[in-house]
Amino acid sequence: MDATPEEIRTLVRRLEDIMNSRELDLLDDVVAEDFVRHCEATPDFKVRSREEFKEFLRQNTVAFPDNVQTFHQIIVEGNLAGFWVTYEGTQTGQFGPLPPSGRRARFDFGGYLRVENSKLAEIWLTWDNMTILGQLGFLPASP
């Protein structure tokens, strides 16, 4: 039986809570073992399993230890959940090739999740890297 829209919303809210609480072992209950992440903003960063997703979140927390992701909108259609999220955090650790800036970033991103067998199976994300890099001070100031 397919998950209901309310069950899908609950899965997405649990994902939000797990990411913000850093209790990544709880992802085993909501994320499929063969979870896949797609992101046009970070095409070279591959996530092809739940364990790789956990590692991605760990690395994100090293770069932005105080990060919080707030899901504002969750819209369910069939087995898909679209979302709009605000990310906030201070970059005190290495962020890919970028050294710690000590600056705070706040930006919105959107995407959608696919649910299969009552677990989150796949995610597509997009955001504006220029906004983030500018807030962290890695772009030249505008004239």
UniProtKB/TrEMBL annotation:
Gene3D superfamilies: 3.10.450.50
SUPFAM superfamilies in the cross-refs: NTF2-like
Source organism, top-level taxon: Bacteria
Pfam annotation, one family: SnoaL
PANTHER family, sorted: ESTER CYCLASE (PTHR38436:SF1), POLYKETIDE CYCLASE SNOAL-LIKE DOMAIN (PTHR38436)
Protein name (database record): Ester cyclase
Annotated organism of origin: Pseudonocardia acidicola
